[in-house]
Write a structure and sequence with these properties.
Largest sheet: 7 strands, mixed
Structural class: alpha/beta
Strand order of the largest sheet: 1-9-6-2-5-3-4
Strand content: 15-25%
Number of strands: 11
CATH architecture: 3-Layer(aba) Sandwich
């Protein structure tokens, strides 16, 4: 093996570190400059009346935006994928706690991660799960959030996040959205979803899924339709507040 072949892995690691550093810098600018606007926010009410936390149920496409919304010590279930590798340093930079694994299809790693997240919530911290991850289909909610809510007694808060200035990765399976600096970030909460010990997990999961569908159709209808139909609308700028819930293409 020659010197060039030996140096190749080092160069790749250096490139990756540079990429991560650039991504963290970009995200910190977004997080510090985004203007967050919340609708139907029940978090303080839940804390006051029950002395408990909650689990955010978000779409995989909204993961980056959700980091800007999350409080420090929020436990985040992050897939063991390249997307997850990029998300972990962003979470850590704002005080969130990444827990690697999947909420979906019952693998050993996913079960272990969910157990860690249950303990995290039982210790009095909130959590966030991209409920249609890690591989979709987009909008198809997995059982992880329902299981977490049932085991801990905390409610699920469906939330759809709409950055009014954003970049859409239209060819990704989830149509990942990247908020841009100085954007307004609208965070629309659905009503809390509870899961008692006797509730059917499938029914709770369907309630969360229906809430997210309704929210996205109401506040981001063009993107909701594009995701449903598999269309590509490209980079976009959301409409001004007087036309909330509509979307227009960037000029």
């Amino acid at each position: 093996m020659n010197r060039a072949e030996l140096d190749a892995p080092k160069k790749l690691r250096l490139i990756k570190r540079i990429e991560l550093f650039g991504l963290k810098c970009f995200f910190n600018v977004v997080r510090r400059t985004a203007r967050i606007h919340v609708v139907n926010d029940r978090r303080d009410e839940i804390r006051y009346h029950s002395d408990r936390q909650f689990v955010y149920a978000i779409l995989h496409a909204h993961q980056v935006a959700a980091v800007a919304l999350s409080d420090p010590n929020t436990g985040a279930l992050v897939s063991r994928s390249r997307d997850g590798d990029l998300l972990v340093p962003l979470l850590e930079s704002c005080g969130c706690v990444p827990i690697r694994g999947s909420s979906g299809r019952g693998g050993k790693g996913g079960a272990t991660a969910l157990s860690q997240l249950i303990r995290h919530c039982q210790d009095g911290h909130p959590a966030v799960i991209a409920v249609d991850g890690p591989k979709g289909p987009r909008g198809k909610v997995q059982k992880g959030a329902a299981m977490l809510a049932q085991k801990t007694g905390i409610p699920i808060l469906p939330v759809v996040l709409v950055a009014r200035q954003r970049w859409l990765f239209a060819k990704a399976w989830d149509r990942m959205q990247l908020p841009l600096p100085f954007c307004r970030l609208d965070c629309h909460f659905g009503d809390p979803v509870y899961a008692s010990e006797t509730d059917c997990l499938d029914e709770v999961t369907l309630r969360v899924e229906a809430s997210l569908v309704r929210l996205e159709q109401r506040v981001d209808p063009v993107e909701a339709e594009a995701a449903r139909a598999g269309m590509a609308v490209g980079p976009s700028v959301a409409a001004p507040a007087s036309q909330e819930g509509t979307l227009r293409r960037a000029a």
